[in-house]
Task: inverse folding
């Protein structure tokens, strides 16, 4: 039986490229395609793919929130992050949320089918440069100079939405939280990062290459 793959990316041309690559191999069949956070979350449970190939920069709540919501409901879900973000912090957050793999869109094209196979078989797949950086961080503490590491996963989600320009009301609706809870998160994030305004949060995101999170 072929591995049933779901493709989640907001660019139709990119999804077409994925599909073309995977269609060359009888090991795969495309179960579904989606282009935003909500349709990806609901589509996953409607189609039950063997592996979800997920971009982090999805419109709406974003890929990290999609991972967390899916894993909360179906802990055994197999999710491969395939993204332009090559910063180790994104990989760390995605893996902590429950993703089984993390690869870059700048990787060799053959890495995608190899990663899907590995994850479908119950393994994991992380591109070498990211894997090395993760090992360094977990074994030596290297990387703690990045202030974003002090944020919890939920705080990081709120941070990402706030720095994309969403209001408290919009963040609350996106993450299914109360406005008071979101406001408290933002206050806590500012305190942890030593800033006073959302504009300063945006500058921090840009400085650490997290803009568009």
Result:
């Amino acid at each position: 039986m072929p591995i049933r793959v779901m493709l989640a990316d907001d660019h139709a041309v990119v999804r077409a490229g994925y599909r073309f690559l995977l269609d060359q191999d009888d090991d795969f069949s495309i179960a579904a395609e989606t282009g935003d956070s909500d349709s990806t979350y609901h589509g996953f449970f409607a189609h039950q793919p063997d592996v979800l190939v997920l971009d982090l920069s999805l419109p709406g709540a974003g890929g990290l929130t999609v991972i967390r919501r899916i894993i909360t409901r179906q802990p055994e879900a197999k999710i491969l992050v395939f993204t332009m973000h090559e910063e180790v912090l994104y990989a760390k957050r995605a893996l902590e949320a429950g993703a089984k793999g993390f690869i870059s869109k700048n990787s060799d094209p053959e890495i995608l089918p190899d990663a899907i196979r590995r994850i479908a078989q119950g393994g994991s797949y992380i591109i070498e440069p990211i894997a090395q950086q993760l090992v360094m961080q977990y074994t030596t503490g290297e990387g703690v100079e990045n202030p974003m590491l002090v944020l919890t996963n939920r705080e990081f989600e709120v941070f990402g939405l706030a720095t994309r320009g969403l209001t408290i009301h919009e963040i609350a609706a996106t993450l299914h939280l109360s406005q008071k809870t979101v406001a408290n998160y933002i206050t806590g994030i500012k305190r942890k990062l030593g800033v006073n305004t959302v504009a300063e949060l945006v500058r921090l995101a840009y400085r650490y290459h997290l803009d568009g999170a």
Observations:
- The CA atoms of residues 12 and 35 lie 8 Å apart.
- Confidence is low (pLDDT under 50) at residues 139-144.
- Strands lie at 3-8, 28-34, 51-54, 79-83, 101-104, 125-126.
- The chain has two domains: 3-140, 147-207.
